Amino acid sequence: MTDVSFAERLNEKLSAIDSIVWGPYLLIPLLLGTGLFLTIRLAGIQFRYLGVALRHGLIDRDDEGGEGDISQYQALTTALAATVGVGNIVGVATAIGVGGPGALFWMWVTGLVGMASKYSEAFLGVRFRTRDSRGNINGGPQYYLAAGLPGGFGKFLAWFFTIAAIIASFGIGNLTQANAVSTGLEDTFNIEPWISGVVMFVFVGAVLLGGVHAIGRVTSAFVPLMIIIYLVGGFVVLGMHVTEIPAALGLIFGDAFTGTAAVGGFLGSAIIIALQMGVARGIFSNESGMGSAAIAAAAAKTTHPVRQGLVSMTQTFIDTLIVVSMTGLVIVTTGAWKEGKDAAGTMTSTAFSQGIGSQWGGTIVSVSIVFFAFSTILGWSYYGERNAERALGSWASLPYRMIFTCVVFVGATTELELAWTFADLANGLMALPNLIGLILLSGLVVRETKAYLKFDPTLRARPDDIQQFMVETKNPWRS
Question: 310 or 81, which is more confident?
Fold first, then answer.
């Protein structure tokens, strides 16, 4: 009884702080405003170069002649592994269960403008990356905020991000993911949470021993497969409810600006709640503006920051405009959203079950959660480790991996509500310094982006030509 009351009190306090950080006067306008600001300054780069970026990242895959620890494709799948997680299933359900169907619209908006933010932070991650004493490449907001912004302010933002990222790695990248796995396996297969925790402990520990190279190999192998399996299941459900799709889209767009009336187990929602939940769960899912993907982008073998920035930008498109959209449309078209926030943990499973039967529907969702969450744990272990090394030195790498692996077991038995609140708050604190930095460094991003894309608009330039371009433009960056 004491433990329950303590957890409830802690959740109330964290929720109070979280409501301020994610309130209408702080992170929401900053997040959307920064994405819109960068979209305008970069002349809608996410719309003009999406096709080129998808080809370069998914078909070309390797940037010949570039230096780095992992391939461009592995950097993309590592970042996708960290973002395509429980937020794409439970997070979307929570957003719609609390904010109504209109929350999905604001998730789309967050994704569309967030692509410009994702491009910018990945560009900066590569632009200011460095090598450590062991020869490994390091980069991300913890480096480009300090190197790109003069004086103590940049260093303060860098340290703020570093600490928040370490904390966030145990929230968004560990507790919520492990919790979702254990809950899904218990509901579908009656597997005890402690058993799930032990299995995840063993597998996560085994992969982390190999470092970023092992993470890159594992994620590049199964991330595309797990996304395809989930999308195929979703298309089957939508195909069986095709007549409801127009009404569902009307509900999504209409409720985004009018709020949602109470119906079934859904208690109703005002516009501001739909907006808040959509943006909060949107950034939880695609992480645009958080700066996390810049850490993976910095490790990529690339010949120019613009090239990797465009590849990283496709991550948000795949995560939000494809995977999140599938989850949201399935939930709304089947009517599962009417069950309300209390059913968020099983809402997606219910929606799939209504489309393709309880056995197959529940199994697809449960298996997807397992793979999505496991991949997210791997991706975020790398993010947290890099920040731990930045804060404490290279010696912190092994202790961090050991602690992170142990927390996986703890997360398997943590209450979902407390874990989500903790993750939301950590995400917000992590995004704040990065968003400020993106605005202040936008001039550099725009100037060098325009110059490079004028020289190589199709991303087909040879390494020697790129090096010559860098010399002629007196750009200090070298691959």
Answer: 310
